Structures are given as structure tokens and as C-alpha cells.
User: What shape does this take?
Amino acid sequence: MGGGLYNNINGRFVLEVFAGYGGGNYNGFFSSTTNTSYNSNASIQKIFLQPTVGLVTDIFDASLGARFSGINLVPEIETDKITSSIFLNQFFHWG
Assistant: This one.
């Protein structure tokens, strides 16, 4: 979900700002040849802000923008043979 604003300045320059939010859940099951299995569930949320400046002419339009985003990942791990902290360090690279 997102929205944005658009403003034309002096007929030549354009300012735009877009913002958005998204979220969801991830469910996964992993197994290995050593009879170890893992259930991985995660809640994911993302927000972003995207400012843009542009130039408008009769021949072409050009713009330059950047996207700033933040992601919140909340994993829930269930394992049958190893600890959750080892699993988190291998797959999510905290630190």
C-alpha cells in the first residue's frame, strides 16, 4: 500500500514523494540429510520513502530518485536437534 505527491515547479522541474507500507508472513520447512528439520516462521514489515526530483522539456523527461526503506523481521524458529540461536546466525546473519 502506498501513495505519493507530485508538484510541477515553473513548468520545468518536478518534485515527487512516494511512501508505502507492506507486511506479511513467511512459513517454511527445511530438512537435511542428517534427519534434522527446521520450521521457520517470520513476520515481515517494510516501510519506504522515495523522494524524486525531475526535469521536464519538450524533448525528454529525466528524474533522479532514491528509496529509503526499513524492514522489521521477527523470526520464530522451531528445531528438532539444534538451538534457535545457531539457526538464526546461519540463516539471518544478525550482528
In short: Residues 39 and 82 are 12 Å apart (CA to CA). The longest strand covers residues 37-56. Strands lie at 2-9, 13-31, 37-56, 61-65, 68-79.
